[in-house]
Structure formats: structure tokens, C-alpha cells
Design brief:
By secondary structure, the chain is of the alpha/beta class. Helix content is 48%, strand content 16%. It is built from twelve helices and ten strands. Helix 2 packs across helix 12. The longest helix has 18 residues. The two termini are 14 Å apart. Bound molecules: 1,3-dihydroxyacetonephosphate. 1,3-dihydroxyacetonephosphate (13P) binds next to strand 3, strand 10 and helix 10.
Length: 288
């Protein structure tokens, strides 16, 4: 059964480790992440962007696929199905479809509007027993070839949003989605410490988990990060393994053209990447 991410992240924050959110795109990715979580006895969050939801034909398909897998794979670790960077409308659709957790990304709105919309969603998800992530301070990334540093959130605004009754908070601390540029200045631990001070027990979320040096990940966890999102790294590892299989001509041998065989190296690569991250985040063996 899908669970809200609230309890697993409160436990992670108290236990000084982080739960990974790994984004899914299709059946193979979902199965790979669930396989890794079960083998590691680790809680896990499956992230679904609005684009990935659309690709998989819609949120109802995603819920059906994930719920079916939990049962038929005999998954016993806590699993949350979470909308990643949702719009207000996207959040409502996922509530309707049966997700167990949503993120409302109101970071591009003026703070008053972010507060207003987040507040409305708090009331909706509470009634359903779902968890809600909100965001303050936009998380950078590549746009038209220009890589933004990622805005640092204002700790006072973080407190305003945290006090609305959300379950966990994504705050920009110089992190960006995708690959980090050579001249990236690193995470702003000063900002993170100030946010943690103002928001107390609120589990904090680190987006853009791909390519952040291990020591920075560990320090971020020490300073209150309890959820770390990883997407690009799974994409890179999946693409590299699939490419290697094809370049070696394996798809031309025997039944290599069979989609199940063709996608197997990529599947194995995701299982390995997710396990590595769970080890780094300290979530192995933390499922109860
Ligand atoms: P990366 O793609 O950089 O790993 O970031 C993932 C993420 O933050 C999804 O919300």
C-alpha cells in the first residue's frame, strides 16, 4: 500500500539520514527503484514530474502501475508516490488519481500567492491523509544553454510557508537540476543553517541531487535535509548502459532485440545507482 511521506521523513530527520526521491518514467524505472528499495530495506519516494505523468498516459495509469507492482512484487518497505514540482491544477489531479504525496511548486509566484495556494492545498491533503511538499526560492537549472546558480531562499519566507502545516519544505540553497557547471559555487550551508534554525523540526528537501559531492550531501543531512531528489543521474546511467549494449552489438545477437533484453542493462544500472544513493543517504535498513 502506498503511504504518505510524512512519517518516513520525520523519522529520517530525527535519525539524521535522508530518504531518496527517485523519479520514474516508465515501468522499467519503477520496477528498478522498487527492487533496490526492497533489497536495501529502505523507505523510498517515487517522484513523478508532470511531463513524466503525461508520458505514462496520465496519473491514473501511474497509480495503477505502482499499486500493482507493490502487490505483485511483494514490496514491504514504505513507498510514497509523489508529484514532483506540481502546478496547482496538477496537484488536484494527483489527489484525485490516488497519489499519496504531492509537491506544490509555488516558488515562481510572489510569496503572498505562494502562501495562499499552499494553504489551500494543505487543507485538501490533510483531509486525504496525504503529505505535501512546498517550495521557496527557485531551484536553478539549464535554460537556453545558460545554467543558473539557483536562488537562495529567504529563511523568513521559509518559516512563513513551513508554518502553514506543510509536511516538508524544498528551499533553494544554490542547488540546481541537471549537471552542475564547472564553476558552480557549491551549496550555501549558511542559508541551510538559517532555514533549519527558523523551521525547527520541518524535514528539508534537497533537489538537484545529481552531481553534488558526497561531503556536501553528508553536511546537508547533518543540517536538517531529510529528502534528496535524484533524477538526472538515473537518466545518465540508464542511457550509458543501453548505449553500451547497442554499441557492443548485443542487440543484434540472438534475441537482443527483445525489448526486455534491450532494457535490462539500463534496468540493472538504475538498481545499482539507487542502491549507491541509499547507502550515501544512510537510509539502508531504515524501513519498518
Ligand atoms: P536532478 O535531475 O538534478 O537529479 O534533480 C532531481 C530533482 O530535483 C527532481 O525534483
Amino acid at each position: 500500500m502506498l503511504v504518505s511521506a510524512k512519517e518516513m521523513l520525520q523519522k529520517a530527520k530525527a535519525g539524521h539520514y535522508a530518504v531518496g526521491q527517485f523519479n520514474i518514467n516508465n515501468l522499467e524505472w519503477t520496477k528498478a527503484i522498487l527492487t533496490a528499495a526492497q533489497e536495501c530495506n529502505s523507505p523510498v519516494i517515487l517522484g513523478v514530474s508532470e511531463g513524466a505523468g503525461k508520458y505514462m498516459t496520465g496519473y491514473k495509469t501511474v497509480v495503477g502501475m505502482v499499486e500493482g507492482m507493490l502487490e505483485e512484487m511483494g514490496i514491504t518497505v514504505p513507498v510514497a508516490l509523489h508529484l514532483d514540482h506540481g502546478s496547482y491544477e496538477g496537484c488536484l489531479k494527483c489527489v484525485e488519481a490516488g497519489f499519496s504525496s504531492i509537491m506544490f511548486d509555488g516558488s515562481h509566484y510572489p510569496i503572498e500567492e505562494n502562501v495562499e495556494k499552499t494553504k489551500e492545498l494543505v487543507a485538501i491533503v490533510k483531509e486525504k491523509g496525504m503529505s505535501l511538499e512546498a517550495e521557496v526560492g527557485s531551484i536553478g537549472g539549464e535554460e537556453d544553454g545558460v545554467v543558473g546558480r539557483g536562488e537562495c531562499a529567504d529563511p523568513e519566507e521559509c518559516k512563513m510557508i513551513a508554518d502553514l502545516g506543510i509536511d516538508f519544505l524544498a528551499a533553494g540553497i544554490g542547488n540546481i537540476h541537471g549537471k552542475y557547471p564547472e564553476n558552480w559555487e557549491g551549496l550555501s550551508f549558511e542559508t541551510l543553517a538559517a532555514i533549519q534554525k527558523r523551521t525547527g523540526d520541518m524535514p528539508l528537501v534537497l533537489h538537484g541531487g545529481t552531481g553534488i559531492p558526497e561531503d556536501m550531501i553528508k553536511k546537508a543531512i547533518d543540517l536538517g535535509v531529510a529528502k534528496i531528489n535524484v533524477n538526472t543521474e538515473c537518466q545518465l546511467t540508464f542511457a550509458a548502459a543501453t548505449r553500451k549494449y547497442i554499441e557492443e552489438g548485443k542487440d543484434l545477437e540472438g534475441k537482443g532485440f527483445d525489448p526486455r533484453k534491450l532494457l535490462k542493462p539500463g534496468f540493472d544500472a538504475i538498481v545499482a545507482t539507487v542502491k549507491e544513493k541509499m547507502e550515501l543517504f544512510g537510509s539502508i535498513g531504515k524501513a519498518e
